[in-house]
Amino acid sequence: xxxxxxxxxxxxxxxxxxLAEQExxxxxxxxxxxxxxxxxxxxxxxxxxxxxxxxxVMQASWRAKTLxxxxxxxxxxxxxxxxxxxxxxxxxxxxxxKKKHKQEITGTESMHVNILRSIxxxxxxxxxxxxxxxxxxxxxxxxxxxxxxxxGGNDGLVSNFSLIMGMAGATAGQSGVLLAxxxxxxxxxxxxxxxxxxxxxxxxxxxxxQMQIEMEELEVNPEGEMKELALIYISKGVSKEEAYAMAExxxxxxxxxxxxxxxxxxxxxxxxxxGSAVEAAIxxxxxxxxxxxxxxxxxFFATGTNAIIISVVFSTIGLFLIGAAITxxxxxxxxxxxxxxxLFGLAAAAVTFGIGKLIGxxxxx
Length: 365
What we know:
Layout: H1 4-22, H2 26-50, H3 54-57, H4 62-74, H5 77-100, H6 112-122, H7 128-140, H8 145-171, H9 176-220, H10 222-235, H11 240-250, H12 254-264, H13 277-293, H14 304-330, H15 334-364
Helix pairs in contact: 1-2, 1-4, 1-5, 2-6, 4-5, 5-7, 6-7, 8-9, 8-13, 8-14, 8-15, 9-10, 9-12, 9-13, 10-11, 10-12, 14-15
């Protein structure tokens, strides 16, 4: 039986190879192929240490194959994002283990994203555009839309399932439950949608204001901004003389200087400001509604105990699938994650059902 560390290395090798196959830029594709070979080497070493024949273990898991399918449909930035998350988790686990055993932290525990960039920088004929393309790739995947879909569906399912069970407890599952479920779906989806719109819009306005202030500072005090640029380069290990020379050259082009200062000083990626707040709100509404409709469906064609039981069954299946989907990003065991999600969801619904039951008895009394 493969252990989790071995399977993680196999999956990483598989996914990096898939990234290489779909990458149109030959330099970046070669970086991904090298990473695939590195991960394959790790997998072989793990297999040999465990006494497992290599040819028996080099098979990607369902998780890796599912991520590859997602990549084909939605774009491979999602796959790279998952790999970056995996590398971060592995790095954190190694550092924590070393600290626990009071071992020296050498720096080799760092994320493979640093190795990726190092390999890229060593490629022949590498250009600034290729470097920035790769940086954009691994920065942009943090707001993973697939992850948001899973979590949005989970919010809708758990909250509306709990609401419906509360109403079912109070009314014994009669027709009022359907109305409450639909009202809960609409209210929850609208609330999530508005919250997402406000979040995206306020972030954009904040960053745009900071960028405008930076431009005004650049126009009013270019000498001071040039010193800031030089200090940024010095902090990255560039010599003082070279840093000031670079800053002096950049400051000649106001737009370029503004772009560099926004990125380096403010930590803002202008590309991320192009997202539509309305689009984010619509997606949030839809994802919440998809989860919220699951426990409501039985009450369209049934009432009473039968509807309650069917709703619980539907919701249990939905909770398990969401828990399983979460493992695409966590790498945890499917059954563990799925059953955990089911238990938490059923516990929340049981509490609200009990409260509804008490309220129903009190009102009837």
